[in-house]
What we know:
The structure is a single chain. By secondary structure, this protein is an alpha/beta fold. It is built from 29 helices and 26 strands. The strands form six sheets. Strands 20, 21, 22, 23, 24, 25 and 26 form a seven-stranded mixed beta sheet that branches. Strand 6 and strand 7 (241-247) form a beta hairpin. It is elongated and about 140 Å long.
Amino acid sequence: MKYKKPDGCDNLYNLDRMAAADPSTVLYIVEGEKCADAMTAKGFLATSTNTGSQKNLKLSDTDRQTLEKFKRKIIIPDNDDPGVEYAKAWERMGAKIFPWREIWPEIQKKQDIADYFQAGGDPEKIRGWKYPAMEFSEEFFSGMDRADMIKTELFAGLQAIEDPLERQQAESLAAFRAKELGISREFTKNQKAWRAAQAQANQDSKNCTKFSGQPLSLECGDWIADDGGVRKMEASGNGDFRYQWASPIPILPTEILMNQETSMEKIRLSYYKPDGWRSCVVPREVAANSNKIISLANMGIEVNSDNAKSLVKYLACCVAKNPAVLPRTKSISHMGWIGDNFVPYTDEVSLDSTDEYGTLIDSVAEKGTLSGWLKAVKPLMGNLYLRLAVAASLSAPLIKPLGALSFAFHLWGGTGAGKTVGLMVAASVWGNPAPGKLLQSMNNTVNFTTGCAATLGNLPFFGDELQTIKSKFDNYDQFIHQITAEVSRGRMDQTGRMQMQKSWKTAFLFTGEEPISQTTSGGGVENRLIEIECAHKVVENGPETVQAITSQYGTLGPAYIAKLQEKKRDGIDLRSVFNDYHKRLLRMETTEKQAMAMGIMMTADEFFRMYFAPELPALKVEEVMPFLKTTREVDTAERAYNLVIDLVAQNNENFFYSIKNDYNGEQYHHAPVREVWGKIDGNHVWIIKRVLEKLLSDNGLSFRAVSKKWAAQGRLIPTKQGKFAGRKSVNGIYGYFVELIR
């Protein structure tokens, strides 16, 4: 008998039987029509590919659709090397490999299933063979070590679970064990790599991208995608054929990023240039619009008005044909916390704002070793100014989990105090501290600063030479209010819709030549600010320190975050440590918000000392209190009253008053010559209400905001009707006067 497929048949053997079979039937895959017929004769449903054993399966869409309906597939290969490769190819398609040695121990080289039956083999041994199932229980995973957790057998076993709920439960148990072992990132990376390899193997029978060194291979329909670029054949009007070019260089989509906060999608495009593969992340609407995609020429993508439409079609084809292959990654537009993960120190969530703030994001990087950084920085931590700067830097990621408020930390003083170097040391916790990297010049707009803060999210912002921004404001109050508001200004787009506002929760670290807070600053500014006047140097040997931290940086940040995550998993409450510091600071008569900001800094310093520098002495409340404002200093009513009393003394020529001459005992009566503000009699001051309101308003204060408290303190005498100003005649001049006690 001659075994042969019908002429012109390129499909799986016995495809008609497979189409008619029940999905619960076990499908056996063998090598060649002879073996398939031998299986059929014994009552099995069997098939074979159209060219026998292959390392890369050639399957049509019809083949794949038919195969997908069978939940259980078993590959029985020939007992030779090509059979091993054939079995592995089918295993990647979800089939289980039949264990020949368990059924037929004496099988010889090159023998197959037909030989087994011819030798009198029992078909029931094949039919009744039970594969030992992996039981993915908590006990199973508890016995696994790090090496076990990244073995291909585990990933294959998880993938083989048919029930979706059971598979998800098993994968969750595996993720829990990976966290316990501290290898979550490595486990996820290996699982993704295994899935990518499976998907890659399944693509071999289709027309795929064939770029050298490509990040992954994608089915691309009728497009030719190789090192010569991307094009396809099209017929012209006279019957000739020519190429329709989408790109003269290799390009393909390699990732879909799904923003977890906005639900918007972006797409990562990878493309080849003479210096190697590059990538950029763009909104989906850019890659889907022939007018907008031309803007990607600025990124080095070879697109113009001639090939834009074709490039859009090619990219759309790749996305549509590869839903299971093209990675879909959770993303976020800012760094910091997203659930229990902290971007960029996680593989669970990617950053999708790499193009808008690329330099800033790229600056959050590692160079050198943690031990090298600690060796350079720990000797400097005896300086209290520097230690608090590092503590402020480390406090930023604590603000959100503690439900606290953003604040500003400011080192100020004359030139040569080492303030900038100190700020660079604090910035080196997270990345490259060089100017223009993490260290920003303050000669920028407020929108730039808030945009950086929104991108940093829960990482600190570092700004040098704050006085350069003063020309944009009458004082720093408005600037401090804007950055600590934790949300960007509301705006409308061109269509009249409200744009999404960006937000952040972080610490802002600045240096400058003068204090931020002024006599006229509101309590809201004072409360959000920790200011330190540098009476002595922050860093003694500046050049040597700069050289050290520009060669060792960004290593403490990820280690510090890992410790915070470890504490959270262990159920240790960060808030209990913070609450202890907060209560102790409040007993020193500082304000709630000042105590909160310094409490977070001291909590961060405590964790740093505990895990990375145990030889450092603990910070004491008494050490930091000189840098905190008291409740009286921050009280707006108190500062407003002191201001008014000073202004009255400074402008006493505008008041009626009488004084006794110490020499002859005669009374001297003074009357204003130019302006009349009121009258002074002993410790009583009657001042025209409108004059008082203007004095306060000129200094950013409000009479209505402080008058009630002045009255309660006995510093303002109300009228008989309980009003804070009344009509009165002062030396024959009538007006509405406020009576103050000085």
